[in-house]
Amino acid sequence: MGSFSRLAAQGAQLWLDTSSVNAAIVETYKSALDKYRSNHGSKGKIKNKRYDESNGLSEGPSGVYMRSPISLAKALKNPAELEGMQNCHLRDAAALAQFWCWLEEEIHNNVELTEVDVADKLLEFRAKKEGFLDTSFDTISGSGANGAIIHYRAKIGSCSVVDPNKLFLLDSGAQYIDGTTDITRTVHFGEPTAREKECFTRVLKGHIALDQAVFPENTPGFVLDAFARSSLWKIGLDYRHGTGHGVGAALNVHEGPQSISYRYGNTTPLQKGMIVSNEPGYYEDHAFGIRIENLLHVQEINTPNRYGGIEYLGFEKLTFFPIQVCN
Description:
Elements: H1 2-9, H2 23-40, E1 45-47, E2 56-58, H3 69-75, H4 79-108, H5 115-127, E3 132-135, E4 140-143, E5 168-172, E6 174-176, E7 179-180, E8 183-187, H6 194-211, E9 215-216, H7 225-233, E10 244-246, E11 255-260, E12 275-278, E13 281-284, E14 288-291, E15 294-301, E16 312-317
GO molecular function: metal ion binding; metalloaminopeptidase activity
Region (Disordered): 39-62
């Protein structure tokens, strides 16, 4: 914080993206600027809608409070970044295939495994793959009712044993030298109930609907959110989180400015080169949770018509691991 105060004391003007910068930094800088103006006798305002929350620019230094252009530049992946994302997802899918085969065999052999045991074993398989650096976030490994806790974190000593007669939700990802992965799969090792089958099917229908969506350029992500919820809405069900977030290329697993969400405030259009997650779900408190997640790359679609003379966009899957069929 001291460095921001010193910059303001020197009359430096800083660009601060208040949607992402720590609020304490913003307030520290503003307070120091006020002191600078007071000491230098600055007063009055010059109208300029680009500056300041009050749509004015004070005489002398003033913070620029606008969205950073860097976030959009990062979101638009170049060919090398996209190639790296595709390659690391192939290696990640191989690790997941090895892991799920191991887990299914252990469960069918009545081996008792905790949620932490499962997460640790997945890390072990991923760590053997070329270019692996670390997990991209803390693995969410939830059996039965724990799967209904959206941001559940299994801990040694308090976590559950993976129950073969309950749904098991595993949300995980990895950082590789050439890309970032994020994938969720929900499986059952035995015979799911009719209720679980119906909910899983409706989540999957929403996942597929978004996966296959085609939309005109300049469409913000919130327009597509209903695609993923429609099947659940038809029977009065829903989920309390966004459907998709931006993902960095060997960077943050949650990256802006784009999203696919019911939050209408984010009007950032989805553009070619962006990467987003597709992760609808359904969570029944004290019973089970379902989420199905792939990563998608926004690309141009060669539609037979170009109404309005504009481009139409759609998605290409980056995630290669299959989804369990719930018979």
